[in-house]
Amino acid sequence: MRKIILLFLIINLSWAINYSPSNPQVGQTITFSLTNPNYFSNSGCSVVWNFGDGSPTLTASPNDSVTHVYNSPGGYKVTASPGSCVLTPPPPESTTVIVSAPDIYISVQYSVRPWPGYPVYFTLVNAPSGYSITWDFGDGTIITNNATVSHTYTSPGTYNVRATVNVTTTQVSASTTITIYPDPRQIIWTPQTPKSGQTIVFQAQNFASSYILWDFGDGITTVGPPVIKHTYRKHGVYTVKVTDMAGDDIKQFTYILTVTPGKGAFIGLAIHSIELLFENNNKGYIVVPFKYTNLKVKARIRYEGSGVLTGFWTIDDVPFASFNRNLTFRGDLELKLSGLPAINPGLHTVSLRITQPQLYPELDVSIPVIHYYVSALENKIEITSPENGDVLFVNQKIRLTWNTIPQIFRYVLIYGNNPEKVVTGKAKKLILNNTGYQELTLPPGQYYIKIVGENQDGVPMYYSDIVNFQVIENPIQIKIGAFKDIEEGTATKEKLKKGKYYNLGINIKVLKGGPYLIRTYFNGKKINEEWIPENEELYKTTVKADNGILEIRVYRVFKGKLRLVIFRSIKIVVQ
Q: Among 329, 349, 352, which residue's Cα sits nearest to residue 340?
């Protein structure tokens, strides 16, 4: 009975080594553990692992698993021995682990075709994880990368590709051979020497895709089949670009095609050059005031052939006005556009979009973009003197006053007797100063004036309203009593008695737009103030004689304001 019990205890105290995976390879991590760690730990023992490949032993708890990697194929004896035991230790346990070389190989995939210029994708199948791989592509290129890489060969040929896994102290490699063939794709066309107006058949041979991007070099591009027809409307040298749209990497083929003249130099309408300018200053840039209404632009277009030119003007890339012209033979066309908006301060662009015919990049035909800047200041000049309806005299300086604007380079007065010529700017012109005040002398007549402010290019940008006034002969004469006329600034030869009142006779022609007011002064003191009756041409007023200067001033009342018409200063000698 005792023998049976003892045998039972020995069976339960046995223990063994487990490992995973069951068929490990070089470079693969293997996990080791004990089948009965409780008995081992009950003895108070640690476990000393010896992996049989000469690597250092590893001490661990019996309840813990451990890992190990073998760098070479072969059979290895793995031993787990007790260590540092408190009680009687169990005997060591061992097992044999067969490590095989990894079954690796290189998989090859082409992106389009095995042609130069296209990437080839390589994958090292079954490569041990966690290790660097050195790739030698056979053309002198060696890199260290992942298990999947790509490489592009630049020349045809046969290449030996090798992938090497650097597993700690050993290397595992795989190789394969690939062949890169010459690119067979080409473009042919018939006839070989085409003419303008002639149908040309283009053929893309050996292309990988059935969808070809055709650029015929005359502004026409299309996606079409490998065989396509095209007609050039004019002769010239064209750069034909054909793109194979297959695979991850597209490739473009470029050919130079010379088209000789056919019947007639041009088929249809051809545009040679386009120039955009502002008509105001013949430049591509201009600054205009806020609410400016006279901004104009023009397009000079040189063309050949016959056809319809259609398109539209754009302002800030937004269609503004369209145009449609029938053109024949050859020449220069000038398109004009006026009334460009100036209600938004800031920078604005002006250009064209031509919808027919299509343009020709090989002739360097491009549509320019020009700019104008709208300032925040409105284009208004105000004439403050003279006022509408004023009547002035030939011997009286005309006081021209207006508000000044910093942006104006110079002011020009446009004046004359014809209001239409003044409005159109075809009347007489006078350069003014920049002070806002200038005196003028004009002969008798009815006048219309306006002031124009110009920029540095001499372009009118700022305008005043039209002001009209009349210049007449001076009808006023001053007499004292029955004596002869006294000239201004001279002393009288008459003996006037001091303190005596004398009548002054004033000849005045009553003008339209009155009434008039006479103010007389004696020695700087006001004597009286009287209205001139509108039905009298001779008016008498009385002044008191005294030594000094007698001033006679005739005023006109206009729009509630007193406007000086004439002034006389007479020196009086009183006895």
A: 349
* Residue 487 confidence (pLDDT): 47
Quick one: which H or E segment has residue 8? helix 2-13
Q: Read off the CATH number of the domain in which 45 is found.
A: 2.60.40.10
For residue 500 the two structure tokens come to 């005596």
What pTM does this model have? 0.40
450: nearest Cα among 463, 437, 433, 432: 463
- pLDDT value, residue 527: 60
Same-domain status, 59 and 146? no
Single out the residue of 345, 464, 344 nearest to residue 404, CA to CA.
464
Q: Tell me if 550 is assigned to some domain.
A: yes
139 assigned to some structural domain: yes
Q: What stretch of H or E contains 419?
A: helix 419-424
Q: Are strands 221-224 and 525-532 parallel, antiparallel or unpaired?
A: unpaired
Report which of 565, 547, 442, 561 is spatially closest to residue 506, judged by C-alpha positions: 565
From residue 261, alpha-carbon distances to 235, 265, 267, 415, 561 in Å are 5, 6, 10, 60, 81
Is there a domain that residue 281 lies in? Answer: no
Kindly give, in sequence order, each residue whose CB lies less than 8 Å from that of residue 82, ignoring residues fewer than 6 positions away: 40, 43, 45, 46, 47, 48, 89, 90, 92
Number of domains in the chain: 6
49/42 Cα distance (integer angstroms): 18
Q: Which of 125, 148, 180 is the last residue of a domain?
A: 180
CA distances (Å), origin 356, targets 42, 235, 366, 430, 514: 98, 19, 14, 48, 67
Q: Which domain holds residue 173?
A: 105-180
- Is 566 found in the same domain as 492? yes
Give me the residues of the chain with pLDDT under 70, please.
1-15, 168-169, 247-249, 263-268, 358-364, 475-497, 502-528, 533-541, 545-552, 556-575
Closest CA to 280 of 457, 459, 458: 459
Please check whether residues 402 and 429 belong to one and the same domain: yes
Phi first, then psi: give them for residue 355, nearest 5 degrees. Answer: -95, -25
Give the pLDDT confidence score for residue 335 in this predicted structure: 94
Nearest to 83 by CA among 51, 44, 53: 44
Predicted pLDDT of residue 261: 82
pLDDT of residue 303: 85
Closest CA to 506 of 535, 481, 471, 472: 481
Shared-domain flag, residues 174 and 193: no
